[in-house]
Amino acid sequence: MTRFWAIGASLGLLLPSWQLEAAANLETSTPCPGAAAWREAHSNQLPSALAQRDRTRTFSAIELRSELQRRFEADQRERKKLIANPGDREVDNRVRRMDEENLAWLKNLVKDNGIPTVSQVGESGVHWTWLLVQHADGDPQFQLRVQPIFVQRQQAGELPADDLAKLTDRVLLAEGKPQRYGTQFDWYSGQFKPKGVPKGAGNMADIEANRQALGLMPLSDYACMMNGKLRHE
Question: What confidence tens digit (pLDDT) does each residue in 178-200 have?
Fold first, then answer.
């Protein structure tokens, strides 16, 4: 597997926050009423809602929050460039180096302080940390080790369920196991098709049940929304 393919798949697997809300806004022109209704009912999970709640908070680790935001914004900026120019090796190399640097920084952070909490860095800060971990594909064992901590953050209401689902599926695929929530797909394929899901109606039914249990949008509605976004890329 080439590094470029890995980066390309990574971009498609995640759907960063700026793309999530952009994809959601496409429903004015894309017939996805189920996705629109779900989003309206769960608008408190969007990154903009996290940021709004953080405005009322004080943080015990302000410098860490600022550093997380800086790394998050750089990640999104460079990945947006790579999505727009998938054959640009210069951008691809920048993303690769950025991921390697972020991974080393994350390991030190977790070793010394663990995964940040909302009281330390806010809901947005926990989300930013999650995104950096989601892109830490250079060390799948690291992702596996910290995934249970993000389970705790989600159960405590400090992390959106969608974030946890994406990291869980990422870890499972790295282990050669089927996805649990059907969140991971190849962005450059031109269509939403979950990776690593064995064929059969029963397997998709299990994914739908898992998504419902975690409080996620039904897979059929998510697929509709994502296909609308892919058509507009």
Answer: 999 999 887 666 667 787 776 65
pTM: 0.84
d(CA 1, CA 48): 36
Round to whole Å and give the CA distance between 219 and 158.
23
Is 126 exposed, middle or buried (CB count within 10 Å of its CB: 0-12, 13-18, 19+)? buried
Rounded CA-CA distance 130/90 in Å is: 26
Angle between helices 33-41 and 17-25 in degrees, nearest 10:
120
Domain span at residue 131 reads 3-231
Quote the CA–CA distance of 155 and 20 in Å, as a whole number: 22
**Helix, strand, coil shares of the chain as percentages rounded to 5?**
75, 0, 25
